[in-house]
Amino acid sequence: MYRTQRKAPRLAALLMSVFLIGYTTFALLNTFLIPQDVVAVTEQSVGTSSAAAQNTDDASEETAGTSQEPVVTDSSYEADGVHITIETTRVGDTTVYIADIVLDDAALLKTGLAENAFGRNLTAKTSEIASVNNAILAINGDYYGFRDTGYVMRNGQLYRSTSSDDDQEDLVIYEDGTMEIIREGDVTAEELQAAGAVQIFSFGPGLVENGAVTVSEGEEVDQSMTSNPRTAIGMIEEGHYVMVVSDGRTEESEGLSLYELAQVMESLGCEVAYNLDGGGSSTMWFNGEVINNPTSGRSIKERSVSDIVYIGY
Amino acid sequence: MLSRFLIATIGAVGFFLLYDQFSHDVRSPFMTFLFAWPLLLGVLPAGLLLLKERVKTGRSSTAPGPWVRLFWGGGVAAVTLSSMLRGIFEIAGTASVHQVVLMGIGIAFLLLAVCLHLTGKRTAQLRSAKWSYSQPSGGVSGDSSVNA
């Protein structure tokens, strides 16, 4: 019997190995590190901010003769049109930070982007983005830059209108200051923009709608199965909002489940409440400093994120 | 080749156990069952082939050639890496097209290996038949009908 005995060139095996390892490495870098699809924030996109700035300028002129400095304490901020109180409480084995916000002008509820631009893998710490935007109070956003789909609108500018899933629940903030939870399969981002939306977040799920909890006890975000640090935003009524951040993954704070977070938002009187990015991203910044304990589980330190939600002029 | 697939299988289990320590109880089936690819596509067929060769002692003409082994091994590596990527992405809460591309490359390599193996078997059979007929009468074949 004739038998062929040829040894595959070692070069071919080497090339194949290099290719597979190289492509895998590229995939990881491209997904987690390399900035992509960068779009700088334009003047139009800060239209809401500009209007607020104009309002601030007008207000400053009006009060020039009777200028009133904001009254700031460790747990409160009082100024014309802005009333913020911070409460730190315990929910089970978890420390929870609750910011109660009353605004005369809904335009003071804004969002900020890392490096002042939209794009995948553009990140910065919540405190850095807050400082750049002169935020009074800030929390991390929906970390849109970790995904390629899902509606993204910030300060009136639509950056991404690609739906991630028909059942994806988004939070919409309209220019009149009202909030609504929508499903991407029911409405397009363009339609929301035409209806007066100024902010669209795509993380979720919705926690409270019409004053009632909408998540089940076993429900979780994607593959998560345990208690975690959490971030949520809610509306009690037009102009009256709450931002909630919980610690977690530490001995001091176990973290909250999605259902427990929803219960907290409901107990605060929220008509609408929405879950934002949690885990190591959960950060609350107030009065120039981070007031919670952000952690990924190994050390207390901020995680860099794509965006923030903040109160500022 | 069996030993290499065994090492890959054990390595996949080890990678999952290590990654699970840092994933905060977030899991993906593509990471949890990462070991299944080298096990089912590597260890199992390699083991069966080895068993077959030992049963039919001396009959190794059906053993895959070196190019077949190269592309099959590359295919198993590619689909395993694709599964690893998808597991990493799902645990992190993101997604990427790259793991789909890698899976496609892996499947292509596997199919190419199968084609090469089948082609090689057919070629070996034809060569074997040609060699048999080319033997002189009274030779090894001992087939008197040839001499007629």
Report on this structure.
In chain A, about 20% of the residues lie in helices and about 35% in strands. With about 325 residues, chain A is an alpha+beta fold. Chain A is globular and about 80 Å long. A 9-stranded antiparallel sheet of chain A has the order 2-3-4-5-18-17-19-15-16, with helices on one face. Chain A has a 5-stranded antiparallel sheet with strand order 6-23-9-20-21, with helices on one face. Chain B has one domain. Chain B is elongated and about 75 Å long. Chain B starts with a helix and ends with a helix. The model of chain B is unreliable at about 140-148 (pLDDT under 50). The chains are: A alpha+beta (about 325), B mainly alpha (about 150).
Task: Write out key terms for the chains shown.
heterodimer; A: alpha+beta; nine-stranded antiparallel β-sheet; five-stranded antiparallel β-sheet; 20% helix; disordered N terminus; B: 75% helix
Rg of chain B over CA atoms, rounded to whole Å, is 22 Å
Q: What is the share of helical residues of chain A? A: 10-25%
Beta strands of chain B, count = 0
Span between termini of chain B: 47 Å
Estimate percent helicity of chain B. over 70%
Beta-strand percent range of chain B: under 5%
**Could you report the average pLDDT of chain B, rounded to the nearest whole number?**
83
Radius of gyration of chain A: 22 Å
Structure classification of chain B:
mainly alpha
Number of helices of chain A: 5
Q: What is the 3D shape of chain B?
A: elongated
Described by the principal axes of the CA atoms, the overall outline of chain A is: globular
> What structural class is derived from the secondary structure elements of chain A?
alpha+beta
What is the H/E string of chain B? Answer: HHHHHH
Unreliable stretches covering 5 or more consecutive residues of chain B: 138-148
Segments of chain A where pLDDT lies below 50 for 5+ residues? Answer: 1-5, 44-66
Main sheet properties of chain A: 9 strands, antiparallel
